[in-house]
Write a structure and sequence with these properties.
Largest sheet: 5 strands, antiparallel
Number of strands: 7
Strand order of the largest sheet: 1-2-3-4-5
Helix content: 40-55%
Number of helices: 8
Oligomer: single chain
Strand content: 15-25%
Number of domains: 2
Structural class: alpha+beta
Length: about 240
Amino acid sequence: MSRTFRYIQNDDVLKSFKEFRDSILSERPVVIARHGDYSLFLRSLSHDTLGLTIENTAKKIVVESRNYEVQNTTDALVSRGVRHAIQKMSELSDEETNRKRLQIWKWYIMDWQQKNPEKRQEMMNKELEWKDDEIGENDEMLDFETFLHREYLNLGNTLALIGEYLKDERHKEMFTKFAIEDIMEMTSEDTRDKSIAEAERLEQAGGHKKHTYQFTVSVEATDKEHARQALLNYLAGDERIRVQK
Protein backbone atom coordinates (compact mmCIF):
# COMPACT_ATOMS: atom_id res chain seq x y z
CA MET A 1 0.00 0.00 0.00
CA SER A 2 1.15 3.53 -0.69
CA ARG A 3 2.19 5.82 2.11
CA THR A 4 0.77 9.23 2.96
CA PHE A 5 3.25 12.09 2.68
CA ARG A 6 2.35 15.09 4.82
CA TYR A 7 3.46 18.65 4.17
CA ILE A 8 1.14 20.61 6.48
CA GLN A 9 -0.22 19.07 9.67
CA ASN A 10 -3.99 19.05 10.29
CA ASP A 11 -3.93 21.60 13.10
CA ASP A 12 -1.83 24.04 11.05
CA VAL A 13 -4.01 24.25 7.92
CA LEU A 14 -6.24 27.15 8.96
CA LYS A 15 -3.26 29.02 10.38
CA SER A 16 -1.32 28.44 7.13
CA PHE A 17 -4.26 29.71 5.09
CA LYS A 18 -4.43 32.94 7.07
CA GLU A 19 -0.66 33.39 6.81
CA PHE A 20 -0.32 32.76 3.07
CA ARG A 21 -3.72 33.71 1.57
CA ASP A 22 -2.38 37.06 0.33
CA SER A 23 0.93 35.68 -0.94
CA ILE A 24 1.51 32.09 -2.12
CA LEU A 25 -2.14 31.03 -2.05
CA SER A 26 -3.17 34.04 -4.13
CA GLU A 27 -0.96 32.67 -6.93
CA ARG A 28 -1.43 28.90 -6.70
CA PRO A 29 -2.81 26.09 -4.50
CA VAL A 30 -0.54 24.34 -1.99
CA VAL A 31 -0.32 20.57 -1.49
CA ILE A 32 -1.17 19.48 2.07
CA ALA A 33 -0.64 15.73 1.57
CA ARG A 34 -0.11 13.08 -1.09
CA HIS A 35 -1.11 9.42 -1.21
CA GLY A 36 -0.37 7.51 -4.42
CA ASP A 37 -1.93 9.39 -7.34
CA TYR A 38 -4.07 11.50 -5.00
CA SER A 39 -3.20 14.93 -3.62
CA LEU A 40 -4.99 17.17 -1.12
CA PHE A 41 -4.77 20.83 -2.15
CA LEU A 42 -5.28 23.94 -0.02
CA ARG A 43 -6.79 26.78 -2.06
CA SER A 44 -7.75 30.39 -1.48
CA LEU A 45 -11.16 30.76 -3.11
CA SER A 46 -11.39 34.29 -1.76
CA HIS A 47 -9.84 36.30 1.03
CA ASP A 48 -12.22 34.69 3.52
CA THR A 49 -12.86 31.28 1.91
CA LEU A 50 -10.57 28.29 2.32
CA GLY A 51 -10.91 25.37 -0.09
CA LEU A 52 -9.80 21.74 0.34
CA THR A 53 -9.72 19.64 -2.84
CA ILE A 54 -8.86 15.98 -3.38
CA GLU A 55 -7.51 15.47 -6.87
CA ASN A 56 -6.28 12.48 -8.83
CA THR A 57 -3.20 14.07 -10.36
CA ALA A 58 -2.62 11.18 -12.79
CA LYS A 59 -6.12 11.42 -14.27
CA LYS A 60 -6.32 15.19 -13.66
CA ILE A 61 -9.77 15.03 -12.07
CA VAL A 62 -11.24 16.54 -8.91
CA VAL A 63 -12.63 13.81 -6.66
CA GLU A 64 -14.01 15.82 -3.77
CA SER A 65 -13.95 19.38 -2.46
CA ARG A 66 -14.97 21.23 0.68
CA ASN A 67 -15.02 24.95 1.53
CA TYR A 68 -14.74 26.81 4.83
CA GLU A 69 -15.63 30.40 5.62
CA VAL A 70 -12.75 31.61 7.79
CA GLN A 71 -15.00 33.78 9.97
CA ASN A 72 -17.36 30.89 10.71
CA THR A 73 -14.97 28.02 11.31
CA THR A 74 -12.35 26.87 13.81
CA ASP A 75 -9.00 25.11 13.81
CA ALA A 76 -10.73 21.96 15.09
CA LEU A 77 -13.31 21.89 12.28
CA VAL A 78 -10.73 22.43 9.54
CA SER A 79 -8.41 19.88 11.15
CA ARG A 80 -11.19 17.29 11.20
CA GLY A 81 -11.99 18.02 7.54
CA VAL A 82 -8.34 17.54 6.58
CA ARG A 83 -8.17 14.28 8.53
CA HIS A 84 -11.28 12.94 6.76
CA ALA A 85 -9.92 14.03 3.37
CA ILE A 86 -6.61 12.24 3.94
CA GLN A 87 -8.44 9.10 5.05
CA LYS A 88 -10.53 9.30 1.86
CA MET A 89 -7.38 9.64 -0.25
CA SER A 90 -5.85 6.62 1.44
CA GLU A 91 -8.94 4.49 0.81
CA LEU A 92 -9.18 5.54 -2.85
CA SER A 93 -5.49 4.96 -3.46
CA ASP A 94 -5.46 1.55 -1.79
CA GLU A 95 -8.56 0.56 -3.74
CA GLU A 96 -6.86 1.43 -7.03
CA THR A 97 -3.68 -0.36 -5.94
CA ASN A 98 -5.61 -3.53 -5.12
CA ARG A 99 -7.54 -3.35 -8.40
CA LYS A 100 -4.39 -3.02 -10.53
CA ARG A 101 -2.54 -5.66 -8.51
CA LEU A 102 -5.48 -8.08 -8.88
CA GLN A 103 -5.52 -7.50 -12.65
CA ILE A 104 -1.86 -8.53 -12.91
CA TRP A 105 -2.57 -11.56 -10.73
CA LYS A 106 -5.39 -12.55 -13.14
CA TRP A 107 -2.89 -12.44 -15.99
CA TYR A 108 -0.62 -14.72 -13.98
CA ILE A 109 -3.49 -17.21 -13.53
CA MET A 110 -4.31 -17.09 -17.26
CA ASP A 111 -0.64 -17.59 -18.09
CA TRP A 112 -0.36 -20.54 -15.69
CA GLN A 113 -3.49 -22.17 -17.13
CA GLN A 114 -2.21 -21.82 -20.67
CA LYS A 115 1.12 -23.39 -19.76
CA ASN A 116 -0.44 -26.16 -17.58
CA PRO A 117 -3.65 -27.21 -19.38
CA GLU A 118 -3.51 -30.71 -17.92
CA LYS A 119 -3.56 -29.31 -14.34
CA ARG A 120 -6.32 -26.76 -14.87
CA GLN A 121 -9.20 -28.91 -13.65
CA GLU A 122 -7.12 -30.30 -10.76
CA MET A 123 -6.26 -26.78 -9.66
CA MET A 124 -9.89 -25.68 -9.79
CA ASN A 125 -11.09 -28.71 -7.84
CA LYS A 126 -8.50 -28.27 -5.11
CA GLU A 127 -9.10 -24.56 -4.77
CA LEU A 128 -12.86 -25.14 -4.48
CA GLU A 129 -12.53 -27.83 -1.81
CA TRP A 130 -12.31 -27.04 1.87
CA LYS A 131 -11.01 -29.67 4.24
CA ASP A 132 -10.28 -28.05 7.54
CA ASP A 133 -8.70 -31.12 9.10
CA GLU A 134 -6.04 -31.25 6.35
CA ILE A 135 -4.85 -27.68 6.66
CA GLY A 136 -1.22 -27.61 7.74
CA GLU A 137 -0.75 -31.39 7.55
CA ASN A 138 1.50 -31.72 4.53
CA ASP A 139 -1.31 -30.25 2.47
CA GLU A 140 -0.39 -30.43 -1.20
CA MET A 141 -3.20 -28.15 -2.31
CA LEU A 142 -1.89 -25.59 -4.75
CA ASP A 143 -1.71 -22.39 -2.72
CA PHE A 144 -2.33 -19.99 -5.55
CA GLU A 145 -2.11 -16.92 -3.37
CA THR A 146 1.42 -17.86 -2.31
CA PHE A 147 2.30 -18.65 -5.92
CA LEU A 148 0.97 -15.33 -7.14
CA HIS A 149 2.66 -13.35 -4.37
CA ARG A 150 6.02 -15.00 -5.10
CA GLU A 151 5.77 -14.58 -8.87
CA TYR A 152 4.43 -11.05 -8.64
CA LEU A 153 7.37 -9.90 -6.51
CA ASN A 154 9.75 -11.08 -9.24
CA LEU A 155 9.91 -7.75 -11.05
CA GLY A 156 11.38 -9.20 -14.24
CA ASN A 157 8.61 -11.80 -14.54
CA THR A 158 5.89 -9.24 -13.85
CA LEU A 159 7.17 -6.71 -16.39
CA ALA A 160 7.47 -9.45 -19.01
CA LEU A 161 3.89 -10.52 -18.28
CA ILE A 162 2.62 -6.95 -18.65
CA GLY A 163 4.41 -6.66 -21.97
CA GLU A 164 2.83 -9.92 -23.13
CA TYR A 165 -0.77 -9.09 -22.23
CA LEU A 166 -0.87 -5.35 -22.94
CA LYS A 167 -0.37 -4.00 -26.43
CA ASP A 168 -1.70 -0.49 -25.85
CA GLU A 169 1.38 1.61 -25.04
CA ARG A 170 -0.48 3.95 -22.68
CA HIS A 171 -1.84 1.08 -20.59
CA LYS A 172 1.49 -0.75 -20.72
CA GLU A 173 3.30 2.34 -19.40
CA MET A 174 0.70 2.79 -16.65
CA PHE A 175 0.91 -0.83 -15.43
CA THR A 176 4.71 -0.89 -15.75
CA LYS A 177 5.06 2.23 -13.60
CA PHE A 178 2.57 0.84 -11.09
CA ALA A 179 4.24 -2.57 -10.84
CA ILE A 180 7.71 -1.12 -10.31
CA GLU A 181 6.54 1.21 -7.53
CA ASP A 182 4.30 -1.40 -5.89
CA ILE A 183 6.86 -4.22 -5.93
CA MET A 184 9.66 -1.96 -4.68
CA GLU A 185 7.46 -0.85 -1.79
CA MET A 186 6.30 -4.38 -0.95
CA THR A 187 9.82 -5.83 -1.02
CA SER A 188 11.19 -3.00 1.11
CA GLU A 189 8.47 -3.68 3.69
CA ASP A 190 9.20 -7.42 3.59
CA THR A 191 12.91 -6.76 4.11
CA ARG A 192 12.21 -4.39 6.99
CA ASP A 193 9.83 -6.87 8.68
CA LYS A 194 12.32 -9.71 8.28
CA SER A 195 15.10 -7.57 9.76
CA ILE A 196 12.96 -6.68 12.77
CA ALA A 197 11.94 -10.31 13.27
CA GLU A 198 15.58 -11.48 13.04
CA ALA A 199 16.72 -8.83 15.51
CA GLU A 200 14.00 -9.90 17.96
CA ARG A 201 14.97 -13.56 17.55
CA LEU A 202 18.65 -12.83 18.27
CA GLU A 203 17.65 -10.68 21.22
CA GLN A 204 15.64 -13.52 22.75
CA ALA A 205 18.25 -16.16 21.97
CA GLY A 206 21.38 -14.51 23.22
CA GLY A 207 20.43 -11.40 25.09
CA HIS A 208 22.24 -8.16 24.36
CA LYS A 209 25.23 -8.60 22.10
CA LYS A 210 28.35 -6.57 22.59
CA HIS A 211 29.40 -4.38 19.69
CA THR A 212 32.72 -2.78 18.79
CA TYR A 213 32.59 0.97 18.25
CA GLN A 214 35.28 3.05 16.59
CA PHE A 215 35.65 6.79 17.11
CA THR A 216 37.78 9.31 15.26
CA VAL A 217 39.75 11.84 17.26
CA SER A 218 41.77 14.91 16.28
CA VAL A 219 45.08 15.54 18.00
CA GLU A 220 47.01 18.80 18.07
CA ALA A 221 50.69 17.90 18.09
CA THR A 222 53.99 18.88 16.44
CA ASP A 223 54.60 15.36 15.00
CA LYS A 224 53.23 11.78 14.98
CA GLU A 225 55.10 10.73 18.12
CA HIS A 226 53.73 13.62 20.12
CA ALA A 227 50.27 12.81 18.73
CA ARG A 228 50.61 9.17 19.86
CA GLN A 229 51.59 10.35 23.33
CA ALA A 230 48.57 12.61 23.39
CA LEU A 231 46.31 9.65 22.61
CA LEU A 232 47.85 7.72 25.49
CA ASN A 233 46.96 10.64 27.71
CA TYR A 234 43.37 10.71 26.42
CA LEU A 235 41.83 9.04 29.46
CA ALA A 236 43.63 11.48 31.63
CA GLY A 237 41.65 14.29 30.04
CA ASP A 238 44.21 15.77 27.66
CA GLU A 239 42.63 18.98 26.34
CA ARG A 240 44.26 18.53 22.95
CA ILE A 241 41.88 15.63 22.18
CA ARG A 242 38.64 16.49 20.39
CA VAL A 243 36.11 13.74 19.70
CA GLN A 244 34.41 14.18 16.35
CA LYS A 245 30.66 13.65 16.74
